[in-house]
Amino acid sequence: MGSREPTRHLGPGQWLLVGAVVLYLGAILALPLVAIFAHALEAGVGPLLQTFDDPLARHGLWLSLVLALIALLANGAVGVGGALVLPRHRFLGRRLLDALVDLPLAVSPVMTGLAFLLVFGRGGWLEPALAAGDWKVTFAFPGLVLATLFVTFPFTLREVGYVLEELGTEEEEAAATLGASSWQTFWRVTLPNIRYGLGYGVILTTARALGEFGAVLVLGGAISGRTQTATTFIYNALEERQEPAAYGVALVLALASILLLAALEWLKRQRRKEI
Amino acid sequence: MRLTPHPTIYLLAALGLALAATLAACDGGAPAPRTSTAPGKSRTLVLGAYTTPREAYGKAIIPAFQRHWKEKTGEEVRFQESYLGSGAQARAIIGGFEADIAALSLEADVDQIAQAGLITNDWKAGAHQGMVSRSVVVLAVRPGNPKEVRDWDDLRRPGLAILTPNVRTSGGAMWNLCAMYGAALRGQTSAPKGDPAAAEKLLAEVLRNVGVMDKGARESILSFEKGVGDVAITYENEVLVGRQAGRPYEYVIPRSTILIENPIAVVDHYADKHGVRDLADAFVAFVRTPETQRVFADHGLRSIDEGVAKETAGRFAPVEDLFTIRNLGGWPEVRKTLFAPGAVYDRISAGLGARR
Amino acid sequence: MSGVRAAVAPGPGGILVRAGVFAYVGLLVALPLAALLATGLAPGLIALWQAVSAPAAADALVLTLTTANVMALINAVTGTATAWVLVRYDFRGRDLLSGLVDLPFAIPTLVTGVMLVLLFGPQSVIGGWLARQGTQVAYATPSILLALLFITVPFVVRAVEPVLMEQDPAEEEAARTLGAGTFTILRRILLPALAPAIISGTIRSYARALGEFGSIVVVSGNIPYKTLTAPIYVFGEIESGRAEVAAAVSAVLLAVALALTLAARVIERLAGVTRG
Fold first, then answer.
1. Domains observed in chain B
2. Number of domains present in the structure of chain A
C-alpha cells in the first residue's frame, strides 16, 4: 500500500482550493481569536495585570487548575489502567463498556450537571446516604470534581486505547518469548509505545477541564469563593460589568489553550517524525 | 505467560487516584478571598441574593459589616456570595445551596423558601415587614430618548424593541409585568380602568415587542448596554448603578408604576446548622441601620428608613401614581392571576409563540 | 480491521483492574445518566411527549436541529476540503493550519462565546457595520451557526485525514491513464472511499452540536422562539425548578446523541476506518 507524497508545486486550481480553505478557517477560527487579542492589546497590559490582583479571579483560576490536576491524575490513572486491560481483550460487557466510555462526549454539559443533581442533590438518589454522612456534593467542591471527572473521562482511555489496539500485543508477546518479565515488558515495550497517546490524553483532559462551564455552573452554583471556577468567574464578571476582569481571565484561558494546543501539535510532529 | 503489566503499574495508578482523591477531599485547599489570617476560628457567612444589588453587597455592605463585626467582637468573618435571578436563587436554596441569608427581589420568593421549611423564624416581624430596600419599575432608554418613549402605552408601538427578563427565573421580570398590569388596571394607561381583559391585551402588545429575555434583571440591562433593544423595562436602581459605572443611558418613570420592595431573611435552618445564627441575625440587623441604608441609596436603592429616605429624596424622582403589590391583591393573588400555568402570562406566551 | 487479537486471559491483577474500571465508570458515568433517563422517563411517555411538545421546548428542539443541519452540511464540504488540502498538498503554513484546526478542542466554549461577542457584538466594528446593513449576528440566529461551526471544525477534518492518507494512489493513476478527468476520479474513486469517514465525522459533529451550551448562552441572546436552543431551554427549566421537564427533554436529546454516536461507530467499524 503506497501513499503519495504531498504535491509541492500547486497549480492555480489547487491554490484556489487552499485559499478557500484558509479563508474559511481564518474567518471561523482565527478571526475570533484575533478579536480577543486585539481587544486585550487595545486595553493594554495594565488591566491584564490588574486581573491577577483580584482575589476572586485568582481563586477562580486556581480552582480550575486544581480541578484539571485532579482530572488528569484520576482519569489518567484509570485511562492507562483501563486501556491496558480493556481494548485488547474480549470479555463480557466489553461492548457496554465501550459505549459507556464514549457517552460523556455525547452529553451536553447542562445535562451532565442535571444528572449529578438528580443523584446528589435534594431529593436525589443518594441523598439519604449523603445526609447520613453530612457530605456536601452539590454547591460544593466535590460536585465540581465529579462534573470535571465526568466530562474529561474518555480522553486518556481512548487515546491510549487506540494506540494499544493498533499495535496489538505482538511486541509484548515477542518480549515475553525472549524472556522479559512483565515489568520489563511494560517499561521497555508498552510504555514507550503509548507515550504519545498518553500525551494527547493528558493535554485533551487538561484543556477540557479548564474549559468546563455548563456542568460546574449547574452543579456548583458559581458561588464566589467556593465553587466559582475561571469560566464561571468570567460569566459572573460579565454580569457585574467587570469587563476588564472578565476579558482578562478569558485571555488567560485563551493563552493557556494556545499553549496546550502548541504542546499537542509538537507531540504530533514528534510522532510523525518517528513514523 | 502473562501479558499484563507488572502489578507495580497498578500500584502507581492507584497512587495517582489516591492523590487525586486527597486533593478533592481537601476541598480545593486554597482559602477563599476576604479571608482572615487570624488564629483560631473564623466563621463564614453565605449570602444568596438576587442579581441587582451585587455591587451594593459585594463592594460596600459586606466589607462594612466585616469591619463592624471585627471592631465589635474581634472576629473576622468570611463571606461567600451568590447572585442569581431571584426565583432561581430561591430554588437553588431550596435545592441544596446552603445560604445563611437570603436577600431576594420579592417577598414571594422568600415565602417559597419558608414553605420548604428552611425559614422558621418570623422574618416579617418588625417595623419593615422583612424588607430591606426599595425601588421602582422604570423604562431605560437611549441617550436623548430618540424613540420618544414616555409611558407604558408607547411600548405598544410596533417595531419597538423591548427588553425584559424571563419571568421564570427573574424577580425583576415579575415586578415589570406587575407594574404594567397594575398601571393598566388603575386606568393610568389607554386601557379602561378595572378591565382585566384590556390590561391583558396591553401586556400582550408590549410583550410582542420583546426581544431578548435574559435570566435576570442584571443580564437584561447588560444586554441593553450592549446595544440590544430600544427600551429596557428594569429596576430604577439597575439604571442608577449602570450610570455610576459610566454607561450612558437615560430613564423614564411612567406615570404609574409599582413600588418594588426587596426582602431579606435569615435562613435559620442553615444558619443554625453552620453555627452562624448570631452572625446572620447581626447582618440582617446591620443592613437596616441608617448607615447601611445610606449605602443602599448610594447604589440607587430607595431606602426603607424614613430618615434616610428624606435625606436622599433628591436623588430619586417622584412618581405620580405609586402603588404596591398589595394594591394588586398581594403576591399569592398576583401569582395566581398572572404567573400560574394557564394564567395571563402563559396565555400571552403561547399566543405569541404560535405566531412565529 | 484493527484491533483485538486473540483473547489472552489476564492475570489476577488484570481482573482487579478491570473490575475497578467498571466500578469507576459505573459510578461516574452510568449512575448519573441512569438517574437522568429514569427521571425523564419515569412520568411516562405521555408526560415525555407533553414536555417535549410544549411550544417553547418544541421550538428550541427544532432550532437546535435546524442549526445543526446547516452546520453539518457546511462541515461535510469544508471539512473534506480542509482534509484534502492538508493531506494532498504541501505549502508554507500547512502545519499552522493543521494546528488551527485543533483549536476548538483546546479552547473553552465560554471563551469562544466571548470572542464572538467581541467580534460581532453591536459595539464591535463588524457588528456595527452589519447592523447598519440590516443584519444582526450577535443575539440572533447567525451567531448560533457561527458558534457551532467554530466548535465542530475538527470533526470531519480529523475523520477524513487518515482515510485520505491511506488512499492508494495506484487506483487514481490507473484511472487517469485510462483518460478519466479529475471530476470522474473524484466521483468514482475518491468519494466512495471517503464517504464513510465524511459521514461518520459529520454525524459526530452533529452529536456534539446538539449539546453545545457555553458559547451559545453568551452570544445568542437566548430569546424564546427565536434563538433559544434545546440545551439552554433545559438550563432554564433547571433554574425554574422544573427538573422533571428538564430531565424529559434531556432524555430525548441524549437518546438522539447516543443514536448518532452509535451510528458513527457502526459506519466506522463497517468501513474499517481507522482513527488517526
1. 44-132+262-310 (3.40.190.10), 135-260+318-355 (3.40.190.10)
2. 1
